[in-house]
């Protein structure tokens, strides 16, 4: 038995994390389970740093004091030769960080021509390299870079007199470390492709000579300049410690040969967590604090930058890269604080209980997904992250044939639903209540809904469409689904709507008017934009008129059934059209029924010849024999719609 690094539960596997944490940890911590440091490495790193507290300044000072020469590659600079300049050496590079923040982020700040000219002209760094700015981008020796200008300004103020620091190599390496190539679709929990791998193998720049020629022939604007910049950087990086590590041990070509699947290469071995970034001119490292994950600024020291950048750009399996992950996860928090705690831990435990309570739920560790088989017999795969509309999960259906997964046969799917087969995902959007839950509780809720998918389809219409198109092929169920489909189409038909209103809704209202007790009152207001405007005091019946014809029909019904206006009640209530029933009307109401039916019949006529929608005369749908006061018929003591 092994204790899970994430939740602390014991599990049978030899892995660092249990199956549930393998799925959820990347979306709680931003670190894949394979990148989580074990207890032995955490103790080793803490001891090497002298068990520091969580103060960033102390931690940076301890990291600078570590034994090792991994940052010494920036000390190989040679003094700049003054004869290399055409006329005279440019002025030393310097910048006001606050002014640069305004220029980059404040749209209302308009710089002067003199300020822009000075930024475009740039200046020289102590090693002779040239740095400038233009149109929101910094350029080092003409190559665009992401520059932590605040940190650089502080370091130059302290070390401008030193001529042994290779600023060109350091800044280009920082630029590479913060250039993250991401997967599509991507979110911050997916990690990134290792920057060096992206640079050398399948990144933005081509590599082999043949690919270089294809890149130029493509005709893309600026392609040749990008190729030249790539070749220059490749030459500059040869002297770095981190590049030396990539060329020793297992060559990159052999790594790629061991992982023939392209998706595995990028999402497997070469997938790494986000480490460094540049924001508002600051070089920052993503770390876990006591409250949450944060980005904190590195101290402005060239040797510290060189060491951390070397760790970040080392191969994924290198000890220094693992050391950096450990520092991100455990060094900036209290020593006894677990990796997952609080509501996140409760969410993990809840999902574990859901998985263990049903044999129709399974954790797929390699796919980092939850596999569910619903009551309909259909299967689903729930994967955290990557959902549409900001949803924190993705639901992919799969199909079962004798318990085995299979792709659906298009000929087995009803033609009306066959287009759903081309939609690889079920679009299930998080409602606000679900979005307020932590990721573990949200995934558990979706898994429980899919377990009982036959009932859940009442609330999730996309799930209903999926089940109707791919559910069991029972002939009786198919006949019911077909009838439901035709009924839904019929309800949306305008002729059917008019026929139903005249032959069903008005007859129901007529039966209420006939059976209401003497003294019953009714309010008949003006039309209110589709809302009911006919209501009764002592029953729940409501009716909505849509035209002046409707009102004339109801006036005729009221007169025939013994209803009159109650003007005294209108004065009391302050509203017009209050009615009270004072009589029951004639015993035989045939003539009256035929009279107001003549008002409704034009609604049922179609075509120039006046063909009627209904087969029988309209008056046959209304009661002609007066029943007198009695109990209301079923389906009438309610809103009539």
Walkthrough of the structure:
- The chain folds into three domains: about 280 residues, no CATH class; about 150 residues, no CATH class; about 130 residues, no CATH class.
- It is about 40% helix and about 15% strand.
- The strands form seven sheets. The protein has a five-stranded antiparallel sheet with strand order 12-13-14-15-16, with helices on one face.
- The two termini are about 65 Å apart.
Q: How many strands appear in the DSSP assignment?
A: 23
> Mean of residue pLDDT?
81
The chain-level structural class is alpha+beta
Helix content: 40-55%
- The backbone outline, from C-alpha atoms, is elongated
> What is the topology, as strand order, of the major beta sheet?
12-13-14-15-16
Q: How large is the radius of gyration?
A: 38 Å
Q: Main β-sheet: number of strands, strand sense, barrel status? A: 5 strands, antiparallel
